[in-house]
Design goal:
single chain; 352 residues; alpha+beta; Penicillin V Acylase, Chain A; 9 helices; 17 strands
Length: 352
């Protein structure tokens, strides 16, 4: 038999910034809403009743977000599906396999994460926004949501899938990450917010802040949020409850490696990055949809976010002086790397 052709994909990552929803938000919709809309409708659709229920749930549980969701929805006034989607109320099942850890070293607190998915499905955007009066910088997930990020107060947050198939009535995790960063100032604030809002699936959220506090919260739709003062998480909670996913994602192997690492003391950034770029943390299994799409390190005390890839290539953004840019990234069976120098953008240049 002839050998299988090697996996190869080029993606463009973007760093964008805007004060209020405008050109950048329109670009995100143009690039990603058609795909998300098809996904959403194919897995449950929308009705007038579900839309009303979603709006009621948002007003009840996250009233601070209602005006923002309304504003974002107005970008497509003739598409009522967008407004329902942006509430993230009881969305279709959504899985990502990730590793995240909070540590501290001579440069202060640090939150680092690997994000594992099919690279073709990532929105590949680091967005700095000031949509509600608080500056937030993070990786876009589900258009208005975030997979991870940091705010101007120095609170950094990251999500990983909790390894359970049960679903319930609650919100999708990308909106919860956005909500925490839009409304909270430190880890304690974040814990209280996450305890109060129902989540539709099981996720692990790791938080750290400028003071170096750190915690992980196990969120589930069928049991109360559980706070763990363990500064890292993989893809299970009390144990592996979905054996097939546990094997594929190597969640236990990653958890054991982190446990051994942190038992020796808090690792510095270089040590943590070296581990995150090697197995069992880093995966180049892109053809199966479980590869490491990007890694990111947030520095709450410095206000920086550094995206990096399998070969160690990286790009740094500063929350207070954010320079829009695009980055060309290549994926193969051997890993990932930036394939060209970053291209700086003016504020009015579009990436779509």
């Amino acid at each position: 038999m002839p050998p299988r052709p090697g996996y190869s994909l080029e993606r463009r990552f973007a760093g964008r910034t805007e004060e209020r929803p405008g050109v950048v938000w329109q670009d995100l919709l143009g690039a990603h809403w058609p795909g998300w809309r098809d996904w959403y409708l194919a897995r449950g659709g929308t009705t007038a009743e579900t839309s009303r229920e979603a709006q009621r749930a948002l007003r009840r549980h996250m009233p601070e977000m209602t005006r923002l969701v309304d504003t974002l929805s107005e970008a497509l006034p003739d598409d009522p599906v967008l407004g329902e989607f942006l509430t993230f109320w009881c969305p279709p099942r959504y899985l990502v396999s990730c590793t995240q850890a909070a540590t501290t070293d001579l440069s202060g607190p640090l939150l680092m994460r690997n994000y594992d998915l099919d690279p073709a499905l990532s929105e590949a955007t680091m967005l700095r926004s000031n949509w509600r009066g608080k500056v937030v910088m993070g990786m876009v997930e589900g258009l208005s949501g975030l997979s991870d990020g940091m705010n101007e107060d120095g609170l950094a947050v990251s999500l990983s899938f909790g390894g359970r198939v049960v679903t319930g009535r609650g919100f999708g995790i990308p909106l919860l990450i956005r909500y925490v960063l839009e409304t909270c100032t430190d880890v304690q604030d974040g814990l209280e917010a996450l305890r109060a809002v129902p989540c539709h699936m099981s996720y692990n959220v790791t938080l750290t802040d400028r003071q170096g506090q750190a915690a992980t919260v196990f969120l589930s739709p069928d049991r109360p949020a559980m706070v763990q003062f363990t500064p890292w998480a993989t893809n299970h909670q009390l144990g592996v409850e979905w054996p097939r996913h546990g094997r594929i994602s190597a969640t236990l192997e990653r958890a054991q490696a982190l446990s051994r690492m942190f038992a020796q003391g808090y690792p510095d950034e270089a040590t943590l990055q070296a581990s995150f770029l090697t197995p069992p943390f880093f995966s180049a299994n892109y053809r199966a949809g479980y590869g490491t799409v990007f890694s990111v390190a947030y520095r709450p005390a410095l206000g920086t976010a550094r995206l990096f890839w399998g070969d160690g290539s990286s790009h740094l953004w500063q929350i207070d002086s954010f320079a829009p840019a695009t980055l060309a990234v290549g994926y193969s069976d051997f890993g990932s790397r930036m394939t060209a120098a970053p291209t700086l953008l003016t504020d009015l240049q579009r990436t779509a």
